[in-house]
Amino acid sequence: xxxxxxxxxxxxxxxxxxxxxxxxxxxxxxxxxxxxxxxxxxxxxxxxxxxxxxxxxxxxxxxxxxxxxxxxxxxxxxxxxxxxxxxxxxxxxxxxxxxxxxxxxxxxxxxxxxxxxxxxxxxxxxxxxxxxxxxxxxxxxxxxxxxxxxxxxxxxxxxxxxxxxxxxxxxxxxxxxxxxxxxxxxxxxxxxxxxxxxxxxxxxxxxxxxxxxxxxxxxxxxxxxxxxxxxxxxxxxxxxxxxxxxxxxxxxxxx
Length: 255
Ligand code: 6PG
What we know:
The protein is an alpha/beta fold. Helix content is 30%, strand content 17%. It contains seven helices and nine strands; from the N terminus they run E-H-E-H-E-E-H-H-E-E-E-H-E-H-E-H. The chain has a six-stranded parallel beta sheet. Strands 4-7-6 form a three-stranded antiparallel beta sheet. Helix 6 links the parallel strand 8 (196-201) and strand 9 (234-240). Helix 1 packs across helix 2 and helix 2 packs parallel to helix 3. It is globular and about 50 Å long. Residues 46-50, 77, 79, 89, 147-149, 153-155 line the site of 6-phosphogluconic acid (6PG).
């Protein structure tokens, strides 16, 4: 079966190990470039399982070379659970990266999850971002890391959810179809103002969602990740062969 050539922004690698290695090298380079250009790097971390190995590589192979005291770590989304809950994105990042590198404590900005009303927590995190990014109409993260769900969601932008229409707030409460349902998420305008957005996608379970998300006629209601296309930013999809199966050898291609 002939394989198509793919655009520069779609990097297909063998497996999770190679995905983590090449993406970690790219993240390290992005951090170096940001710090060289502006003296800092504002990074929005992804949650879920896929980025774990990449974070571990940043904390080991790249630990010494990276200027951690000029890096600020934020989060693209969070499950609305206590910070020490095993499902917390903050806890996962803390265990794999944040506790293992010399990041000043005030450079780590977890999304607050202790407020009774998670709508207040969303407003609180927006204030935190505004303190950091100042009066910019939108924050411009130097690098955003994102995953892809099997239903085409990214961060906590789930299909057919009202948060997909948010065009004013930087941070919004969201509802997931699975527990923990309450989430906090950065919104489309924030992601699409980023200087760099790197998706990390691994495994055959994501093949259908990836195919939907990369279609030119993709609709964000069906595959919210499809609408992450920063007009003035670098977008790269780092995917492994299993996740790319549907785009390499599309099932509905003429035989
Ligand atoms: C989360 C993430 C979510 C994740 C995807 C992929 O809070 O779970 O923000 O968007 O990136 O669901 O998750 P996996 O990497 O675990 O497959």
